[in-house]
Amino acid sequence: MSEVSERYGRVSNGFGARLGRVTPNQWSLPTPCSEWDISDLATHVITTHRRMVSNLEGSPATEVDRGGDLAVQWSEASAAVKGALADPDQASQMVNGMFGEQSFESLVSRLLCADTLFHTWDLARATGQDDRLDADAVARAMEFLAPLDEAIRRPGGFAPKIDAPADADPQTRLLNFGGRTVQ
Predict the structure, then answer these.
(1) pLDDT digits (tens, 9 = 90+) for 82-136
(2) Does residue 183 sit within a domain?
(3) pLDDT value at position 156?
(4) Buried-state track 86-118, b at ≥16 Cβ within 10 A, e below 16
(5) CATH assignment of the domain containing 69
(6) What letter does residue 151 receive in the DSSP assignment?
């Protein structure tokens, strides 16, 4: 198993664990992503995963059934990414992404892990769950995102960054970089 596969597994399992604890009355709660409630956030993460796998397969992505069980749909989407990472041919296959052509594994390592990590924190905050993130995944996300800085601050991307306190831990630094207020 590759480092990316292991890290993605930890990140996706963290999101899935929190999603699995969402109660029926929480789906419409607001999240730190001001335009999304919990249902919107889960739909976004599932859609992103499905698009990446469909890009790999060269087929259209299946739409999320917003009236269906989002935890089950998440589990299926995450399993598809894990399966592709476990197949050396699929993991090394070149795909187009927002940062140009790269291997599927690279796209997962960089974009998918970072996106899922941020939204794990968003989901945890919105539902009052443990918001601690995988420390290695936090460090790797910051390595990927820091050089991009202003290129990721656009509609549908990250909000303006927040200056982190000098004594901030790496997770707070990453979240502030992504425009999240950590209190």
Answers:
(1) 999 999 999 999 998 777 899 999 999 999 999 999 999 999 999 999 999 999 9
(2) no
(3) 66
(4) eeeebbebebebeeeebbbbbbbbbbbbbbbbb
(5) 1.20.120.450
(6) G
